[in-house]
Target: PD-(D/E)XK nuclease family protein
Amino acid sequence: MGQLKNTFSWSFSASEDFEQCRRRRYWSKYAMWGGWARNATEEQKTAYRLNKMDNRWGLMGQAAENAIMWVLRQHQAGKSVTVDDAWNTIARPFMTKKWNESLEGNWRTSPKQFCCLRDHYYGKLSGEEEKEAKRALAAQIRNCIQNFIDLVLPRVGNVQPQQEFRIATPETGGDVEHFIYEGVKIYSIPDYAYKIGDEVHIHDWKAGKIKADQHKLQLSLYALWAIVKYGAQLDKIFLYVEYLNEGQVLPFQITNEELEETKLLMSDSVGAMTEYLVDEDREKNEPLPKEEWELTLDPANCGMCDFYELCKPELDGLGG
Model:
């Protein structure tokens, strides 16, 4: 097997990290590279381990999405299932497994294979507070499943598997869903997409809070994915943000002007990231020294950052 190459890439999440804190992007894209190898430096190993860290809200979203997709598959197979069925068969075992992995510290031996929750790693949850957090997560997951069954399934229940786009996710192994735009690898992972005639329908499951503007921007990237990768026509692309916990849906289409705004945002963000590379060479993709990647201007971001451990000595030195 040839040596893995750290390819320059862009995604909305990477862009958000970069905008919030340049150093966070450095840790997650460059310092962690090769951290899985036995001969990696301690800093590489730590950055790699922290890059694999999850949080309880992300875990909740994964559990809800796994459960509703199971419900959909059962429906497509002609089987009617309940919230209890989905919770007990899919969501609860998933949450229990991941939570226990984190508590037991299995991630110390294999960060990629086992879950490490930021709340456990940084001592944010314990005792009664942890029990209450688990109860709240379970209630929200169950509510998401119920709203999917009641409100979303009637709208997508007639879609057949052969109409669906195959979307590469981290769980399927290998490289995740992406497309190439202006020579840049763009990561774009829609939750659920399918065709009806020449129409493309793209749904994004949200188990958390409503953030309409942010989510519309995210789905505009999915529209570009459908255009570049599958030749879809913009006026034939229908987008849906499914707010599962609130039982609401935000259906919309985007205009050519809005699509151009998304392209411009991407181009500006890619350009800014490129400035932090040696010789601004995206092909080589070698980062400038760590010190050139500035710390966030808002220290409040640090308390919620997976990489806090790596920045703490420097922050302490600054009186942070």
The chain has a mean pLDDT of 94.
